[in-house]
Request: fold
Amino acid sequence: MALHFSSACLCSLSQRRVQKIRAVASVSSVTEEDKVKLGGSDLKVTKLGIGAWSWGDTSYWNNFEWDDKKLKAAKTAFDASIDCGITFIDTAEVYGSRFSFGAINSETLLGGFIKERKERDPEAEVSVATKFAALPWRLGRQSVLAALKDSLARLELSSVDLYQLHWPGIWGNEGYIDGLGDAVEQGLVKAVGVSNYSEKRLRNAYKQLKKRGIPLASNQVNYSLIYRLPEKNGVKAACDELGVTLIAYSPIAQGALTGKYTPENPPTGPRGQIYTPEYLTKLQPLINRIKEIGESYSKTSTQVVLNWLIAQENVVPIPGAKNAEQAKEFAGALGWRLTQQEVDELRSLASDLKPITDELFCFLLSVMYKVNF
Ligand SMILES: NC(=O)c1ccc[n+]([C@@H]2O[C@H](COP(=O)([O-])OP(=O)(O)OC[C@H]3O[C@@H](n4cnc5c(N)ncnc54)[C@H](OP(=O)(O)O)[C@@H]3O)[C@@H](O)[C@H]2O)c1
Reply:
């Protein structure tokens, strides 16, 4: 089982402890108590989901290549996740699409995985979240319904659980929100949300939907121990006040918080532009403390940083899984809790680091999607 411990870490742990942590990492412990209602909607999802951006993607992930091996690994990630009881899966119409220079649309892959799973396990529970790309030439509420129907066709589903606006449009946002409301009223989705919305946009979207008696269920934003902008820009506080769930994307900082990347072994591809050897050097004291805390609970670093996010309350992290091992490990983030002292200590250690800038993320995403945020 690849748990991505660095060799230094492996040396410092006794064999017994490693075995214990490995066992915990693969425990299927998700229960009804590990589910939450998404905002004010009736949709109940696991307190942690998984992200499917990397499935079929060749623009940011997978070293710009997609092959059968990666496809099989993505399928095992899906199955392992469902086996562990993590049933909330996040995708988007742009992931893996030709539009974002991908190999296969992530929705198409997910649709195939669900179909195959349901054939041999008809009772299997899967909650699908997908997203509308607010492209400048898409105007009006009809564009949301049209894109949703295309997503449903790729997913081979008659409805999805959560439909989100992937990012605010340059214009036409009121029309998009109307489109979300129409999707609920037409029974095409159970709940609706937004993504990458500022506090002001979030409040406006919430108000507009409320007039129709429809709750805004979620706002999906970048949030991790080392990217805490939502705590500073009013988004987390507004989500808590309005009863909108904050869905945390990139919750393990694209692998940087797992401890597997070091100054000597930085990530390749676009991630290498963000998590440079210099940045990873500064990150080490935090990584070391995360590891130590994890050892005291027989948990991996990945499980600690996901548990830290869940401890913020009203937060559902959606880490990306490329294979079964990664997906299984996520499940071990549920069913236990860091102490408040540990939560505070980790935030304080992380505060010593210069935050990764939003501009860099937006630049990389805008290059990918050819849009401006
Ligand atoms: N709404 C938006 O604008 C937006 C933006 C970004 C992401 N998202 C969503 O959020 C999801 C998650 O975000 P993300 O994929 O950017 O970042 P992430 O979840 O922080 O990191 C995922 C990556 O970390 C590595 N990893 C995963 N599990 C690991 C483990 N147990 N040990 C070591 N490394 C592990 C994998 O890459 P390697 O194995 O290659 O290291 C994986 O692809 C996406 O899939 C997507 O659904 C949404």
Observations:
- The beta strands are 35-37, 44-46, 50-51, 88-90, 127-132, 160-165, 189-195, 216-222, 245-249, 315-317.
- The pocket of NAP is lined by residues 4, 51-54, 90, 166, 195-196, 220, 249-255, 258, 260, 302, 318-322, 326, 329 (CB under 6 Å).
